Amino acid sequence: GGQPPPRPPQGGGGQPPPRPPQGGGGQPPPRPPQGGGGQPPPRPPQGGGGQPPPRPPQGGGPPHKAPPLFIPQFPGGMIKAIDAGSMKGCLYQNTYVWLINGRSFWFYPTYVGYNSVAGYRWRRSQQRWAYYGTDASEIRSFQCY
């Protein structure tokens, strides 16, 4: 023993990564015709298919308003722990969470990892969102609204 493990060589072949060419052939990008055809632009269907519209990452900020006032009923007969990935469909939505320790609260997930979730938990006593993260194994059940 006593030998440190070999270290990989530092740096690479001294080559910077290739950069995409800046600009183009001096041509501005083609512009769509203004107001042609009398057709309004197609709008995504509202509330269809149960799929929320994809949202850009919001820099992880809390929602701008309080969660719903109601407290959902715990769905009985649920399995003990959940798979974190199953919460992906609730990203950026008000989600009611029941923990294994018996606590429950409104949660606004902004990150769903391999086995953990993070976002904002509603602090009813302070009437504000507070940053919160937990291991998925702590979550007994959840429901997004």
From TrEMBL:
Source domain of life: Bacteria
Chain intervals for the UniProt region annotation (Disordered): 1-69
Name of this chain's protein: Transporter
Source species: Peribacillus butanolivorans
